Amino acid sequence: MAKELKNLTKRSESYSQWYNELVVKADMAEQSDVRGCMVIKPYGYAIWEKMQRTLDDMFKATGVQNAYFPLLIPKSFLSREAEHVEGFAKECAVVTHYRLKTNEEGNGVVVDPAAKLEEELIIRPTSETIIWNTYKNWIQSYRDLPILCNQWCNVMRWEMRTRLFLRTAEFLWQEGHTAHATKEEAEERAKQMLKVYAEFAEKYMAVPVMQGVKSETERFAGALDTYTIEALMQDGKALQSGTSHFLGQNFGKAFNVQFINQENKLEYAWATSWGVSTRLMGALIMTHSDDNGLVLPPALAPIQVVIVPIYKSKEQLGEIDAKVEGIVSKLRAMGVSVKYDNADNKRPGFKFADYELKGVPVRLVMGGRDLENNTVEVMRRDTLEKETRTCDGLEEYVKALLDEIQENIFAKAKAYRDAHIFECDDYEDFKARVKDGGFFLCHWDGTAETEAKIKEDTQATIRCVPFDCEQTPGVDMVSGKPAKYRVLIARSY
Amino acid sequence: MAKELKNLTKRSESYSQWYNELVVKADMAEQSDVRGCMVIKPYGYAIWEKMQRTLDDMFKATGVQNAYFPLLIPKSFLSREAEHVEGFAKECAVVTHYRLKTNEEGNGVVVDPAAKLEEELIIRPTSETIIWNTYKNWIQSYRDLPILCNQWCNVMRWEMRTRLFLRTAEFLWQEGHTAHATKEEAEERAKQMLKVYAEFAEKYMAVPVMQGVKSETERFAGALDTYTIEALMQDGKALQSGTSHFLGQNFGKAFNVQFINQENKLEYAWATSWGVSTRLMGALIMTHSDDNGLVLPPALAPIQVVIVPIYKSKEQLGEIDAKVEGIVSKLRAMGVSVKYDNADNKRPGFKFADYELKGVPVRLVMGGRDLENNTVEVMRRDTLEKETRTCDGLEEYVKALLDEIQENIFAKAKAYRDAHIFECDDYEDFKARVKDGGFFLCHWDGTAETEAKIKEDTQATIRCVPFDCEQTPGVDMVSGKPAKYRVLIARSY
After folding, report:
1. Which residues, other chains included, contact B106 with Cβ-Cβ below 8 Å and sequence gap of 6+?
2. Which of B68, B92, B122 comes nearest A39 by C-beta?
3. CB nearest to A75's CB, from B38, B79, B100
4. Over the stretch B202-237, which tens digit does the pLDDT of each residue have?
5. Residue A89 and residue B111: Cβ atoms within 8 Å?
6. So what's the pLDDT on residue B6?
7. Is residue A95 over pLDDT 60?
8. What global pTM score does this model have?
9. What are the pLDDT digits (tens) for B261-314?
10. N or C: which end of chain B has fewer CB within 10 A?
11. pLDDT value at position A86?
12. Chain A: nearest CA to B369, how far in angstroms?
């Protein structure tokens, strides 16, 4: 294995260092010289594009349309919704001027004090305010509803401690913002989009997720209910991977968006918003990858199959090229994304290590003996198993293998996740075990006090009240008070 | 025709008012409450998405990959390239603080003076500086080259006078940034991307364009050569629709991007950049549309065919629904995007006007008599011609009609453009005629002085030295000095 590639820190040594190194070494992203802002490199961006394309199709299948709203938000808009401003106005990038001028020395530029804005503008941390200020003009009657808009864009939150993909000052995301004539319809839409996220995470990312509803403390600023999908990383920490909010009439009231309802009465519009971000890239990387590098689900891998020749002469390479050409075109015709890497400036060993690091699901190697025997070596990235197979029917085999890998990495992640869900009824026991990671299902009395105590004692938080989980009443493990249901508790990213 | 739709200002009354109204009435875009920033509405955004998808495929076919670079640029980066800072640092949004705090009255938020940035950050007006600062770390050897990156993103330039799509403070665009080992390769790439833009404009947008190279005065700030495509609007003004820049080693030197070349010597990398923006939406609208509203080329129309029923009873509507269902599914199977609008809360006349306004290329109307006769009324938006046709073979006919419309609107726009290209050798004659619009081909002595005089006298500018244009030497019409070639002069947006 090539030297510069293999010295990836092992997960067992330091999971967080392994992650930080892997993101950079696998050409996914890197820190820029702008504090907290990342550069998403072509290989990483290609995965994000596949995510976008898939999610976008899923959104549109539910009637959602894309639109675009301004990057900048007048400062006063943020103050309109009381909780929202608390949650978002604090750490944000503020535009105060609109011009630079040459400095006195003539060798640089300085802010022109004459070009001060009357009202400061905020780079959007999320767009509820600017969008509801726009919806005001779009909504008069129930006939104008529902409005189902989504935008793909960049947002900015001035985070103090950043990590590539997981927490960055600028990140890319989609934010859906819908307006409805009834409370029921809005609530249903918020739940529907959570299901879309869960389906995307499990089917395409091969990441098993718990669906549920957040506690009041953990809700989105301005929401009446926040639904969430929570994934479990290999270090036992939870990663909130997508959220969908039922916003009630809060933004309708804050921006005075009223409509004539079917009973001919004025009513405030009902709202939802929902988003997933480049954070999903972090979830994808951390769920499947191993000490050799990325493991990508075939459904989102930019290169699904790589083919590497091993040859002793230019002549032999020519023969391999000719043989591989047929395989490549057949695979492409089957919709498989394939790369034939016959570049002669890198040794096969370097290529093997590099494609392992980059998580290419299937590697085919063809050498001189393979040429003679009409065979090829097939390696699957998820298990690193190799086998030599005949070239007859190879394309169908590879296609089926990609499906198998997709299923296998999901099954593996799910087995890990399921083995790390613990019912726990004793607080001392909980405190001792929660630091080792995992999802803890514990009875909760529903108060913010016990929630705060758990967080203070253990850094763990209530991730959600899980759906699809048989619930029996019990006793809160902290307060000893009656509890209606169990909640999912974990330390988290 | 529905009353609220038909009172669109005629082009002959005021072309600019017609444009402003049309963009809003056709649900393309609207002004936001943030100065100079627009909201792109779902119908307009759907066209932009089609443009994006098509261009993106064309870029990728030339080996380009997408990536993402930070929104914010440190102020000092702009000063690195002397011309670049002159061109872009002046009117830009400046981030000076990263936090707001609750005001003393407790009813709003103010900028927290304690959260002042050490160095101000600029919202990118274009990304050469931040990208070349990144490339520095990606490029060591000629083996690392070429780098062919593109990003789809938002940018911001603090324009004083804004118009929807044509000139907005924030706009959406793509910016390609490539790095090469040789001057020749970079120059070739800059020209190649101009050809991609020209092909896209003509083949998909049905907008004929003149390709050429800018005069020194009109070059991109920091470029050695700027290539451009120039379109002619119906009011006789030119619209610069896309540019591609050969940047030489300017950014390589400014950001110290050196590589070991094939001769084992250190050399600065060669650069190009190239971009098109939501301004293309303006070109699309202004080139084809008429006093009834938008005329969209089928290749970019979100809805290519709309079907409207006319019925006397619910029962009859049911029969039409059943008949239309077969047509819809056949058209969809042929890849045609079709909408059946049987909503019962709007009259057919309103629907007709609305789809005309929105530029849907083909409208089918089915009424009771059509049902009896197995016919349908077909209207094409470009000529507004109607005919009644049998439903037998209708889908094939419609598919062919869409192709015909695409060709026809291009031919029409090209005929208009060609009829408004004037060779002119007399400056008095030029001054008298240029204000009425059109492309003027005039001999130019190559000096900035005559260029400035033309602009001062007439507001017209040299759009480019056109390619594919037989050039003969002559005499500059202003200075009387020898001129090697003719340039394209016009008033412009």
Report:
1. none
2. B68
3. B100
4. 999 999 999 999 999 999 999 999 999 999 999 999
5. no
6. 64
7. yes
8. 0.96
9. 999 999 999 999 999 999 999 999 999 999 999 999 999 999 999 999 999 999
10. N
11. 79
12. 31
The verdict on a CB contact (< 8 Å) between A40 and B99 is no
CB–CB contact A45 B67 (8 Å): yes
* Token code pair at residue B298: 């089928």
> Which of chain B's residues have a Cβ under 8 Å away from the Cβ of A27?
none
CA B186/CA B257 separation, integer angstroms: 15
Candidate from A70, A91, A170 with C-beta closest to B34:
A70
**A95–B94 CB contact, under 8 Å:** yes
- Of the pLDDT bands very low, low, confident and very high (cuts 50, 70, 90), residue B4 is low
CB B97 within 8 A of CB B48: no
β-strands A485-490, B91-102 pairing: unpaired
Q: What is the pLDDT of residues B112-143, one digit of tens each?
A: 999 999 999 999 999 999 999 999 999 999 99
In chain B, what residues touch A92 (CB-CB under 8 Å)? 98-100
What single string gives the DSSP state of each residue in A251-293? HHHHTT-EEE-TTS-EEEPEEEEEEEETHHHHHHHHHH-BTTB
- Supply φ then ψ for residue A97, to 5 degrees: -135, 160
The residue written with tokens 């570049």 in the block is A343
Dihedral of CA atoms B70, B72, B74, B80 in degrees, nearest 10, equals 70
Question: Which two structure tokens, joined as six digits, stand for A462?
Answer: 């209530």
Could you report the per-residue pLDDT of B334-392, keeping only the tens digit for each? Answer: 999 999 999 998 999 999 999 999 999 999 999 999 999 999 999 999 999 999 999 99
8 Å CB contact of B134 and A101: no
CB contact under 8 A, B72 and A34: yes
pLDDT tens digits, B26-60: 999 999 999 999 999 999 999 999 999 999 999 99
Shortest distance between the Cα of B63 and any Cα of chain A, in A, equals: 12
SS3 category, A474: strand
Closest partner CB to A93 (pick from B48, B98, B172): B98
**Structural domains of chain B, ranges and CATH numbers in brackets:** 6-82+125-288 (3.30.930.10), 303-407 (3.40.50.800), 421-490 (3.30.110.30)
- Is residue B459 scored above 60 in pLDDT? yes
**CA–CA separation, A407 and A206 (whole Å):** 7
Is A99 in contact with B111 (Cβ distance < 8 A)?
no
3-state secondary structure of A487: strand
Beta carbons of A111 and B94 less than 8 Å apart: yes
Residue A79 distance to chain B (closest CA, Å): 6
Of B41, B96, B154, the CB nearest to A154: B154
Cβ(B369)–Cβ(B312) below 8 Å: no
Cβ <8 Å between A100 and B121:
no
Contacts of A95 in chain B (CB under 8 A): 93-96, 123
Residue A371 has pLDDT above 70, yes or no: yes
pLDDT at A82: 76
Q: Looking at the complex, report in whole angstroms how far the Cα of residue A96 sits from the nearest Cα belonging to chain B.
A: 6
- Taking an 8 Å cut-off on Cβ atoms, the answer to whether A70 and B32 are in contact is yes
- The span from the CA of B110 to the CA of A125, in Å, is 16
* A121: its two tokens: 């503008």
Give the confidence band of B2 by pLDDT, cuts at 50, 70, 90: very low
The Cα–Cα gap between A121 and B91 comes to: 15
A431 three-state secondary structure: helix
Q: What is the mean pLDDT of chain B?
A: 96
Q: pLDDT digits over A171-206, tens only? A: 999 999 999 999 999 999 999 999 999 999 999 999
Which residue of A24, A51, A84, A109 is the best one to mutate when testing the B interface, meaning the one whose CB has the most B CBs within 10 A? Answer: A109
Q: In chain A, which residues have their Cβ closer than 8 Å to the Cβ of B80?
A: none
Query: Do residues A17 and A9 make contact, with C-beta atoms less than 8 angstroms apart?
Result: yes
Q: What is the ipTM of this complex?
A: 0.96
